[in-house]
Design brief:
The complex is a heterodimer of chains A (296) and B (270). Chain A is mostly helical. In chain A, 73% of the residues lie in helices and 0% in strands. Chain A has one domain: MetI-like fold (Orthogonal Bundle). In chain A, α4 packs antiparallel against α12. The longest helix of chain A is centred in the first third of the chain and has 32 residues. The relative contact order of chain A is 0.13. Chain B is mainly α and 270 residues long. Chain B has one domain: MetI-like (MetI-like fold), CATH 1.10.3720.10. Chain B contains 13 helices and no strands. The longest helix of chain B has 34 residues. Chain B starts with a helix and ends with a helix. Classes of the chains: A mainly alpha (296), B mainly alpha (270). The interface between A and B is large, with 96 and 85 residues.
Amino acid sequence: MKNQANPWLTSNLWVLGLGMLPAAILIGALLYFTAWAFAFSFTDLALVGRKSVEWSWVGLQNFERLFTRRGFLESLWTTVIFVFFSAIVGQSVLGFLLAALLRGTQSSIRNVVEICIMLGWLLPDIVAAFLWSATTSQTGLINQLFIIPFGLKPINFINEYALPVVTIANIWKGTAWSYLLFSAALDSVSREVVEAAKVDGATGFQRIWLVMLPIIRPHIATNMLFITIWTFTYFPLIFAMTGGGPGTATQTLAVFLYNQSFSRGNLGFGSAISVAMLVIVGLLSLVYLRMLREPK
Amino acid sequence: MESTSSSRITAVALAFMAVIWVSPFSWLFLNAFNPMSTGQLEIPRSVGLDNFALAVSGNAGKQFLNSMLIAAGTATLSVIVGIAAAYPLSRLRIPGRNAFLWTLVLLRMLPSAGVLVPLYFAAQRGGLLNQFGVIVALTILNLPFTLLLLKNFFDTVPIELEEAAYVEGATLFQIVTRIVLPMSRAGIAVVWFYSFTGAWNEFLLPLIFARVQDAFPMSVGLYAAFGQQGAINYGFLTAFSIIYAAPAVGVYFLLRRNMNTGFAGVGVKG
């Protein structure tokens, strides 16, 4: 990729530059808005009322409140549980197992299962929330199939087990992404390598654990990076299903941010929450990117 | 060593899995096709399309068009702006371009509620609190991902082909439209599809930008319909949900072949 060797590029530099201009303007706008969001975190700006006009700089007060007031740390813990069980354990492991199992089956089975899983992913967030609220309600599918026939009292799952319910709903919704990525990754593993391991007497488990997994390690890291970050900031599904409740049982950081910014109107404090989230996400990304770079 | 019995067990397990996965849809369809729907999970006494007729008439039909405009507009604008910038980014040796793109992607991880407030103030000042404003705002939010993915796809197009075309006398425009774009068709389809579904599903941004009911897309319409007429009309809501979910599903199946090859590119290191 030497510039000087590519005359169709070097002789058209101004055309290429012109092509980049619209994107540069929009990216500039994004940076400008992000800078404002940062700046808000040092103010007491409010959505309505006197402080929406006469706001003032308050230094690090918003960030102190993250740790001194109830809410942030609890929400962080809820988010960690939600991300760990729904994204890392649920979507990633299930997606990988499906990708590995479906490789060996007939294409008809593969197509049907793939389409079924994709349906969850393709469904808009609000509809998915609607669907899972109904499925786990007192008269919903789970009660009708597993609780009522055994003469037990119907359970209002969405109230009593809110966090597990939204976790399962998110696994249902998001597994397709991991499945597709792992499926593409496994396709890139050459058959010869797997065959060679087979000839050498490796069992099915060994072939996956010792041969395939190391080869697709970059894909695993990429997948982890994307789904962790998405799940960490995922908002509509939980918000539409529970609104963060009952109490604060499902109040992840994204819901906490929304409640503080738009329900309570504390835009300054809300911005501090989003800055804190960005720092956490940034640190996580660095860990994953390191995983991606250095070969063992 | 795969014996037929173990592969049969796998097939049964997979079929079981597929059934579990689609089972929540039972409630949606049973209610949508039941004109006397009560929101309960029950076999309808009569089957009819009354709910769908309700869901495409009046405001609901307008909301469908609004969603279509926003989603197709955002996806097309993102891809065009993205291609124009991603090709130079892929081919020219701009120092620090990868670090820059990753920083942008990271910045976009900022929950969008954070950027929403300044975005709203700017749109208000520019008179863009309308569909076009939503399209531009969503394109801005999409662009880091679009650029990174498109650049990765362009990186996989062998530069030797472009060299050969240049030697044969092709112009830059011909090289891009005849070689680079066709060869990264799958990637472009993936990016377009992501932007389309992302914009189609987007809820918070149009909720804040769309001031009048005429401008509501379906996501906001569905949310608003929850509390209409005092009681919840489950028949209408389920039918409306199916219509709302249909285009994203449809577009996926149209692009399915491209999608699955395109995904391989996502895994290529950034």
